[in-house]
Every structure is written in C-alpha cells, then in structure tokens.
Amino acid sequence: MRRGIPATAMLLAAACVRGGTGAGDNAAPPPPSGAVLAYAETALPADARLAAIYERSCRNCHSVRETGAPLTGDAPAWRARIEAKGLDGLVASARTGLNAMPPMGLCPDCTDEDFRALIEFMATEAK
Exposed site from 21, 55, 69, 76, fewest CB < 10 Å? Predict the structure, then answer.
C-alpha cells in the first residue's frame, strides 16, 4: 500500500493556490505593478449598489495579491482570463465557484448582470 498524499488531492490543493485562469493555460501575465496594487486596495465601482456588493463580496480577494485572485485594475491578468473563457465564462465561474472562490463569489443575491458589471469593473486598467 502506498502512503502519502494522493495525487488528486495535491492537484486540487495546487489549483486552489495557483489562481490561474481556470482554463488550463500555463502562461502567467506579468506581476502587477505597485500602481495596480495601490489601485486594487482603494478602487470602488462608481455605482453605489455595485460598490457595496464589491466591498462585501469581492474586495477581500481581488485587492490582495497573495490570494491568487486577479487584482482589481490588473488589466493583463483579467485580459488573459477573458480571452480564455470569455465574459460569459467568467460569469459562470463566479456563479459556480473557481479555485478558492466559492459558488456565487460570496454574493448569494448577485445576478449575472451584477457579476458581469463587477468583472468589467475589476478588469478595467488601474487609473
């Protein structure tokens, strides 16, 4: 009998930490700049309702590089995901969960339109 961690458990753990596009590609976008990091920590959607959703459901992961989630304002990281899955695919991932993001992305009352608007906001280049 073999001992140790089963290969599937190791792959699952790596997927949760890796934070890739979820589309099986290995090409990583360049690391975010200091300007992107600063923007990710402070940016909010202009729409007050979306800003409230973003603060309670998105900011905790999409403003911290170490989570592996693409940062708000890191356009190259988001572009890679949009090219790999399309906007509808990213909305579906938000709905069903991906890697460390739980189903509905911590927003059980969000609609697909909400997810789409939030993804478009986060994918916009840092100002």
Answer: 55
- pTM of this prediction exceeds 0.70: yes
> What's phi and psi for 9, nearest 5 deg?
-65, -40
DSSP 45-98: -SSHHHHHHIIIIIHHHHT-GGG-SPPTT-HHHHHHHHHHHHHHHHHHHHHH-B
Q: Give domain 7-123's CATH architecture.
A: Orthogonal Bundle (1.10)
Report domain extents, the chain. Answer: 7-123
Q: Can you tell me the distance from the alpha carbon of 112 to that of 34, in angstroms, rounded to the nearest whole number?
A: 31
> What pLDDT digit, counting tens, does each position of 85-118 carry?
999 999 999 999 999 999 999 999 999 999 999 9
- Is pLDDT of 45 > 50? yes
Core vs surface per residue 32-58: b (16+ CB within 10 A) or e: beeebbebbeebebeeeebbebbeebb
